Amino acid sequence: MTNPFGLRPPFDRSAAGDRAAVFGYGDANADFHVVGDHPGVHGGKRTGVPFTETAAGRAIQTVLRDVGFASGPADEPTLENCFLSYVHPCSLPNGHEPTPEDYETLERFFDAELRAINAHILLPVGERATDHLLREYTTQRHRFDASLDLSSLHAEEIRGRGFLVVPIRDPSEWDAADHEGIVSRLESILGRDYRQTKGVATMVG
Question: What is the pTM of this model?
Fold first, then answer.
């Protein structure tokens, strides 16, 4: 399901033919919530679906298919037990990056989706999403250097009191082992009673 909570973008700076925003998509009762950066990085400006169109988005979708979360068409997959969203859901013209003020403006929209889904496992993709989740939704950010090393954090489990954060290195930087690493980690989590980690998506750690 696209935008199950009926959110509306606070601004429209999209190019002609692009969606004003790419809000959350998938199973609103999901245990796994995949969080990307913005549509210009991870895709969806034309489809309206996160993690489509771009090479990075397709790489993430391949992982979801390998563990059984996704099936069906690439541009409009059927998702089970998985929800997708972006820290910055609004679209910008090609080559334009969100400003710190843009991220701050859109924080309440991302926060509303994350709290409504209230997933067991949070899967941030790339440095921006990982930094944001660790900083705003856990007390774990101080454990890591100012510049997060996603090559070492990729597919690792960072436990809070209410959920697990499992960072994913941006697919544009993957080496040969990174795809298999995150698939294996997700299969391991699915093979155990991960639901005991459920909690309220707030400041936990």
Answer: 0.91
Q: What mean pLDDT is predicted for residues 79-104?
A: 95
Residue 71 backbone dihedrals phi, psi, to 5 degrees: -150, 170
Name the residue among 108, 86, 81 with its Cα closest to residue 98.
86
Within a 10 A sphere around the Cβ of 149, how many other Cβ atoms?
12
Q: How confident is the model at residue 202 (pLDDT cuts 50, 70, 90)?
A: very low
Domains parsed from the chain with CATH numbers: 25-197 (3.40.470.10)
Residues 6+ apart with CB under 8 A from 106: 10, 87, 88, 89, 90, 98
Q: What is the spatial order of strands in the sheet that 158-159 belongs to?
A: 25-26, 82-86, 32-36, 121-124, 164-165, 158-159
